[in-house]
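Suppose a colleague, Dr. K., hands you the sequence of a protein chain of 253 amino acids and asks what its three-dimensional shape might be. Before reaching for any lab equipment, you can write down a predicted structure in token form. Begin with the sequence itself:
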Amino acid sequence: MPEPVLDRPRYLSEHLSDLRKGLMRSLVAVAVCLGLAFWKSDWLFGFLLHPFNTALAKFPEMSGKVHALQTLTPVEAFMINMHLAAVAGIVLASPYILRELWVFAAPALKPGERMAILMVFCLGLFFFLAGVAFGYFLVIPMSLEFLVRYNLDYSFIPQWTLQGYYGFVVNFLLIFGCIFELPLILAALVSVGIATPAFLSQKRKHAILGIFILAAFIAPSADPISQVIVAVPLILLYEMGIWLSYLAVRRKK
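The predicted structure, expressed as tokens, is then:
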């Protein structure tokens, strides 16, 4: 039976050529998706302003006083529109970009490493998107409602700018997207030997206390209901992190 023919080692120039081709294809995909996102800029602005309009709808007494967000420079709306289109274009093109990166890097990985990287990436993406959705659909509307009511209690009329509102929304989405990576962070700490599943389980009470303290800072208002709404998902994430850490230990063994 003949010996299997092994692939010959590839030269550095060939790897660089493949990388350059992948980058060019990725840039074309980003350009196409960016153009599509800019074409649908009305939908993007509607998505951005939905929490603001939802919050204002709960204050009919403000009718005629606050109609929309304000712009302070001639190019403010256009620049934010371009930034939104760029972000949306990269997000839309990200599956193709990741595919190009995977095709380039996968041959250098062992089968076990490929499976581990795919699992970590899929879980990381899922947790990040879950955090973004939690912030967009729950925390941001609650925060805006609280801030509008806070202004009205002191007889202030909110006249917010588009730039300020855009930064507020983006920061919240990024914060909650990163916070929801807690299970992977705990599993990573266990994988490198900094912690153990037993230690995480033992410190559960301390973790819950710390989560409620954190919720007191990031909750949209000081009432206990808002803090519980923010804290409960974080506690569930901590429990999920313990479960993932057990899986990481088992896989390592």
